[in-house]
Design a protein that fits this description.
The complex is a heterodimer. By secondary structure, chain A is mainly alpha-helical. In chain A, helix 1 packs antiparallel against helix 2. Chain B contains three helices and ten strands. In chain B, strands 3-2-1-5-8 form a five-stranded mixed beta sheet, with helices on one face. A five-stranded mixed beta sheet of chain B has the order 4-10-9-6-7. In chain B, a hairpin with a 5-residue loop joins strand 2 and strand 3. In chain B, helix 1 runs antiparallel to helix 2. The two termini of chain B are about 40 Å apart. In chain B, about 25% of the residues are buried. Classes of the chains: A mainly alpha, B alpha+beta. Chains A and B meet through helix 1 and helix 2 of A and strand 1, strand 2, strand 5, strand 8 and helix 3 of B. The complex binds copper (II) ion. The site of copper (II) ion has 6 residues of chain B, from loops.
């Protein structure tokens, strides 16, 4: 039961020390996407990066980017 | 229930919500708010001394050195010593204030590796919270909206315009990260007892962190004018013990 709730979240990122964390969210999301294209969806590393991306980004934002990835209108880099 | 004379001494009711005609602080629940209150009190102490000193000089000058008591005017216009004195003293006072003020400012910005991240999204006119560290069986995140309780639904003892239907539950003695953003216009997420106030700006994510030292219910309000219902989107934080928090999360992701 208690293994369902783990007290773990995205760590403090020394690259982004300020109050403005917009870039943390964006970079964490891209790191997750890069991992996905490299190691595949189900690797432990990618699952961790997915958690960290969702910890730093509003769910709406990630969902919008995922839609854009599908539609081919995503403004960020593409990892093949 | 037995009532002992003087037993009221044991009661200490802490003030975690605004009260009518309040001009002081609410009682602090985080080290940061304790720092803010202490800095304020320290500065006000010296401020009162300075006000008394300046008023005393001003009144002496006005009453003792007017045209009646001194019909012949002095003809000097400089005094190097006194000018040095009244330039250097205020600058030393300002430096004396700057040192603890900057120490506090930088300690507010300090981010310690948090255990929980909560996102607060300001909307017209309610707050949504996302606990995306936790998912249920269907891979859905723990997230909910937090609306004001209308006046007719209030129970005895609840606060008008401050109570919400879904409170944020947070464990005590844990480092918390809050990511604040807006979904439509600028709002501001503020809880006085925790010493936090952070603008919720669309397209930008702002991070604040705090460490609650005692269990309790903390009230705050949207603090950036955001439209007609700006005054009706309060914030309620319930700080509970760690075990209660885990239990709450489990119940929340099970249903
Ligand atoms: Cu607002």
């Amino acid at each position: 039961m208690s293994d369902v709730v783990k007290l773990e979240t995205a760590p403090r990122d020394p690259r982004f020390p300020s109050t403005n964390q917009t870039m943390t969210c964006w970079v964490r999301y891209l790191e997750w996407k890069r991992c996905q294209s490299k190691d595949g969806e189900d690797s432990d590393e990618c699952k961790k990066l997915r958690r960290w991306a969702y910890a730093m980004c509003p769910i709406d934002w990630v969902e919008r980017w995922e839609e854009q990835q599908q539609d081919g209108t995503f403004p960020g880099p593409k990892f093949e | 229930m037995k009532f002992f004379f003087f037993s009221f001494i044991n009661y200490k009711v802490l003030n975690d919500a605004a009260r009518p005609w309040q001009i002081g602080f609410q009682d602090p629940a985080t080290p940061i708010m304790e720092g803010i209150v202490n800095l304020h009190h320290d500065i006000i102490f010296f401020l009162i001394i300075i006000i008394i000193f300046v008023s005393w000089i001003l009144f002496r000058t006005l009453f003792l050195f007017n045209s009646k008591t001194n019909p012949v005017a002095y003809n000097f216009s400089h005094g190097t010593f006194i000018e040095l004195l009244w330039t250097l003293t205020p600058s030393l006072v300002l430096i004396g204030i700057a040192v603890p003020s900057f120490a506090l400012l930088y300690s507010i910005d300090e981010i310690i590796d948090p255990a929980i991240t909560i996102k607060a999204v300001g909307r017209q006119w309610y707050w949504s919270y996302e606990y995306s560290d936790y998912v249920n069986e269907e891979n859905e995140f723990l997230a909910f909206h937090s609306y004001i309780l209308p006046e007719e639904d209030l129970e005895l003892g609840q606060f008008r315009l401050l109570e919400v239907d879904n409170r944020i539950i947070i464990p005590v003695n844990t480092h918390i990260r809050i990511i604040v953003t807006g979904a439509d216009v600028i709002h501001s997420w503020a809880v006085p007892s925790l010493g936090v106030k952070c603008d919720a700006i669309p397209g930008r994510l702002n991070q604040i962190s705090f460490f609650i030292k005692r269990e309790g219910i903390y009230y705050g309000q949207c603090s950036e004018i955001c439209g007609v219902n700006h005054g009706f989107m309060p914030i309620v934080i319930e700080a509970v013990s760690f075990d209660d928090y885990i239990r709450w999360v489990q119940n929340k992701i099970l249903d």
